[in-house]
Amino acid sequence: MSGEKTHILVVDDEEIVRESLGGWLEKDGYVVAAAPDGRSAVEKLKAEKWDVLLVDLKMPGGMDGLQVLDEARKLQPEAIAVMMTAYATVDTAVAAMKLGAFDYLVKPFDPEELSLMMKKIVDRQALVRENAVLRQALKKEHRFRELVSQSPAMQKVFDLAQVAARSNSTILVLGESGSGKEVLARAIHAESPRAAGPFVAVSCAALTESLLESELFGHEKGSFTGASARRKGKFEAADGGTLFLDEVGDISGKLQLDLLRVLEDRKFHRVGGTEPIEVDVRIIAATNRNLRKAVADGSFREDLFYRLNVIPILLPPLRDRKEDIPLLVEHFVERLSAEMKKKLEGVSSEAMAAILAHDWPGNVRELRNVLERGAVVAAGSVIQAADLGLSRPGAAPAGAREPGSLEEMERRHITEVLSHTHGNVSQAARILGIDRVTLYSKMRKYEIRRPGGEEPEAPEGSKS
Amino acid sequence: MIEHVRLHLDQAFGWPVRMHMGAERPRDAWDARRRQWSSTRILRWLGEVGPPGGKLLGLTDVDLFIPILTFVFGEAQLGGASAVVSTARLADPAEVGDGRVVLERLAKESVHELGHTFGLTHCGTPGCVMGRSASVRDVDLKRGELCPDCRGRMSPREEREA
């Protein structure tokens, strides 16, 4: 028997049975309590935790054994229930098993039968406990803060991130949209000696050059039209902590130079200011662009690239680490269940098959969004394939079109999705599995107007 | 037979053992429907008619039962004064065993049931006499002695009788 004593509740209207069975079980080292009827059994189920319930099927007083079993399943689903009866009938045995009874014994029991059954129960509970401990241990091993993975490629990322977190060096996180660049940056910050300091995130693609400049460095009162008061920038806000520069590959030439200067001197000026400001900031930059290519074609400064590329960390796309999908699904379902206060046990095997068959262009973020939709739509505690809203692989889109370039297809698809959401950008971004900022920049790139007519406006710059 | 049991008890508990012979049985312990004797009622009766103080072990050849089980080899009051053991099932003709084997089984179960009166519960140590026995095969697999753990758990008591 394992360390903790097994607690058994005997429910029987006959005192002689309660005493006799209780005495036998106590000699076996179990902690035993008894209840003479269904109602007091339910009281005991509400008051204490029980490992095993031995319940007589036929009891007078309005609540029989099957009703107790039904209540027990709701109150303590993990307790193992065994039905006892003086007269076995197939019907009652089937009813008991349907209600989740572990076993069914006819009174009086053969001593060997009772011994074997108790051994089976104790072994099973030990297994359940061991399984829970192992799963917990496995989860710990397969995670780095909010990131979960068991793929070798991601394990290398975790190891590198862990080491990098301890240093003060600039980190460049590379990866597709939705692969978790900001989540990794936050994890590195949390693991670093700067954890008590602020984590400030700026999306460089979301803002125009002048707005981004003032966002990063702040401005003095009257430095430009609309600068009605002095404002601190993100560099100052991140003093003593970490500044996360997302989409750093999208910044203009002038800002590239400004950024290079701060990285070299750790000093900068507010827009319109003359006084140099010194800050202690650790930079984590991220991009989904190929910066080496950008350097080669002259759109990104080589010196800045080397300043940023001190510790490069590449986050592999989800389609390259499909072995992580079941773990991620479990992780997100658990999280969604807690966030939504809805009992969710997981996804059906058909749903898992559909998830595994999908290509996940929007990576982990897309997976999370699909599961969130599934969690909202699911009628029961298990998310079904239909709840996910994933299109079946191979399903031909209505009205086949002329084949076009990848960019052309992307432009068309974004336009279609925006029209489907009646111009709601957040909803469209969720469907596309990309963040709003990326969607805005793609809308600008393809000059897509939202249904409703306005220009693609920029969202608020900071995600912190 | 009784002398053999006495030797084992002496060895296991190391206290003086006194013997009483008698052929009476409590009438209310007989269950006409089951055609068996209630070991629980026998224990109660032993407590009433036996000498006060110490521990009491009743030895019998009638088939014993407790309400929830089809039969028992014996029963004892956990941490109490009385215990009872029967040869009826220990001498099961379906199981291999000559007189000597039955004698060993009786001695083991006697130590086992008296062990319960000293507050010992079933023990998981292989071979320990306090191991649970649901069949004569289980009894045969045990040795006649308490394992060191059980011996350590037993608190010294005053004089007992058998």
Keywords:
heterodimer; A: 464 residues; alpha/beta; Rossmann fold; Helicase, Ruva Protein, domain 3; 5-stranded parallel beta sheet; 19 helices; 18 strands; 14% strand; elongated; B: 162 residues; 3-stranded mixed beta sheet; 33% helix; disordered C terminus
Element layout with pairings:
The complex is a heterodimer of chains A (464) and B (162).
Chain A lengths: L6 E5 L3 H13 L3 E5 L2 H10 L4 E5 L8 H11 L4 E6 L4 H9 L4 E4 L4 H31 L1 E2 L2 E2 L3 H15 L4 E5 L5 H11 L7 E5 L5 H9 E2 L11 E2 L1 H4 L4 E5 L6 H13 L1 E2 L8 E2 L3 E6 L3 H6 L5 H7 L2 E5 L9 H16 L5 E2 L1 H9 L5 H15 L4 E2 L1 H4 L17 H15 L4 H8 L3 H11 L18
Parallel strand pairs in A: 1-2, 1-3, 3-4, 4-5, 8-15, 8-16, 9-12, 12-15, 17-18
Antiparallel strand pairs in A: 6-7, 10-11, 13-14
Helix pairs in contact in A: 2-3, 6-7, 13-15, 17-18, 18-19
Chain B lengths: L1 H12 L16 E2 L4 E3 H11 L6 E5 L3 E2 L8 E3 L5 E5 L12 H19 L18 H6 L6 H6 L9
Parallel strand pairs in B: 2-4, 3-6
Antiparallel strand pairs in B: 1-2, 5-6
